């Protein structure tokens, strides 16, 4: 194995241990939590190395990177987790099977049209803003995206009714400066209400390198991990 492959293997082992411990602490079964490796800014060789170690789910937050990497590794399940312009919907639908960041009606329409055109079914998660849950950010206005919890039912109905789309659940990023416990507890409430209307929408995509334990404690089914697996990112220009 190359040095890099060794490093990724060690990181993956540590991450698996963190997830396992968090599941134990939360009284949850390990197989309730799925790992999505966020490979943004890292080369496709890293994606291949992770795949060789058994990682199946990978995610990107920029359409430009997704469309280059995904065709190189078509056997993996590709997730899109970033802000998405409607005009990039077709490219994202072509290259990913899950979109975690659905946050407006116009995007639902664009994704639906693209999915029908590509003859695919795309699983859509509603990105929820957690600014209302005990955050310092609400005051500063430094939002991290997503719809207000009160807007979730309407957007959910639109996704559920759209051709080519499947309503998968919710996604969130804990607000900067907030207590992730409070934020993810709020997300859990939003997810429970959604599931009572749409039983199949049972995914909670929450938890990153800094806060995966809090997310798992509050019901995350998909943790999105970048730095813990791949190391520090160099910002893209
Ligand atoms: C980059 C990113 C992640 C991974 O963050 P880390 O802190 O590197 O684990 C998760 N979710 C989204 C939406 C991201 O953009």
UniProtKB/TrEMBL annotation:
<dbReference type="InterPro" id="IPR001608">
    <property type="entry name" value="Ala_racemase_N"/>
</dbReference>
<dbReference type="InterPro" id="IPR011078">
    <property type="entry name" value="PyrdxlP_homeostasis"/>
</dbReference>
<comment type="similarity">
    <text>Belongs to the pyridoxal phosphate-binding protein YggS/PROSC family.</text>
</comment>
<keyword id="KW-0663">Pyridoxal phosphate</keyword>
<dbReference type="InterPro" id="IPR029066">
    <property type="entry name" value="PLP-binding_barrel"/>
</dbReference>
<comment type="function">
    <text>Pyridoxal 5'-phosphate (PLP)-binding protein, which is involved in PLP homeostasis.</text>
</comment>
<feature type="modified residue" description="N6-(pyridoxal phosphate)lysine">
    <location>
        <position position="40"/>
    </location>
</feature>
<dbReference type="Pfam" id="PF01168">
    <property type="entry name" value="Ala_racemase_N"/>
</dbReference>
<protein>
    <recommendedName>
        <fullName>Pyridoxal phosphate homeostasis protein</fullName>
    </recommendedName>
</protein>
<dbReference type="GO" id="GO:0030170">
    <property type="term" value="F:pyridoxal phosphate binding"/>
</dbReference>
<feature type="domain" description="Alanine racemase N-terminal">
    <location>
        <begin position="16"/>
        <end position="233"/>
    </location>
</feature>
